[in-house]
Structures are given as C-alpha cells and as structure tokens.
Amino acid sequence: GCPARPGMERRRYRYRQRRFWDELYRQEGAEPREWLGGLARFLPHLQPELRPGDRILVLGCGTSALSYDLHELGYRDVTSIDFSAACIAAMRTRYARCPDLRWAVMDVRALAFPDASFDVVLEKGTLDALVAGDTDPWNVSPQATASMHRALAEV
C-alpha cells in the first residue's frame, strides 16, 4: 500500500467529531454534497429491494440529496438523521417545500426510534466516519470497534 502522508490520520480523525461537521455545514449550508455518489449510482441495486410504502431511514444524511431523490421517486416515508444540528437545520430549510420529509438530529449509536420503526435503513459513508483515523482497516481501534458495534446494534 501507499505510505500515509504526515498528518493524514489526524485530518481523517476529525470526521469522528461533531464539531468538524457542524463547522462544515455552517459554512456550506445545505449545498448538495454526495460523498460516494448520488442515488443514480446506487438505484439499480437499491430499487429491487424497495417496496412502495417502505418506511426508510437514512443514517448520517449529511447534505446528500438521497432522501429528496427517494421522495421524488415516490417513497414518501423517509426519515433522515445526522448528528450535526447545523446539517439538519440546513436540510429542513432546503426541503421546507416537502413537509413529509422528516429530519432529526440523532447519533447512529443512539437511535431514539422504537424497534421495527423502519423497513429499510440506508447509509453511504456514515459508518466510515466511525473508523476515520484508524490506519489499518483490518486492525481497528477499540474506540472505533465500540462505535461500530453500538451503531449496528441500534440498526
């Protein structure tokens, strides 16, 4: 593999920190950002798994248009969470014209929904943030392992 650049782990570690995300979203607002691609990239794999009326939860929504795009395809029961209050405030403003899209400030490691509230749970990069800063994906730190276990147990 390629050697890590000096300070790379420190810069990646910030992805675990709510402060980093709040500052980013305060600066950028709700400008769409697709870290790993938009819905079109995943739709051929996702659509066969979705059913009309599915209750969908989007974890760590960020400023992705994923939730809105699902809504526009006819999936009306979409709830999106992010642990950044600045992000959720920006998304509520951006999609105010879609009152049935729901937005909540919530950490994936401590979901406040009753069991079996959703039929589908989507994420595209949130779990990566839990291990950000770890240099070896095969030897994850105890902190990252605990965070991942909490998130997966919640889902």
Automatic annotation (TrEMBL):
A Gene Ontology BP annotation from the UniProt entry: methylation
Annotated InterPro entries: Lys/N-term_MeTrsfase_sf, Methyltransf_25, SAM-dependent_MTases_sf
MF annotations from Gene Ontology: methyltransferase activity
Domain Methyltransferase residues, every copy: 56-129
Pfam families the record matches: Methyltransf_25 (PF13649)
Alphabetically ordered keywords of this record: Methyltransferase, Transferase
Top-level division of the source organism's lineage: Eukaryota
PANTHER family assigned: EEF1A LYSINE METHYLTRANSFERASE 4, SAM-DEPENDENT METHYLTRANSFERASE SUPERFAMILY PROTEIN
UniProt similarity note: Belongs to the methyltransferase superfamily.
Protein name: EFMT4 methyltransferase
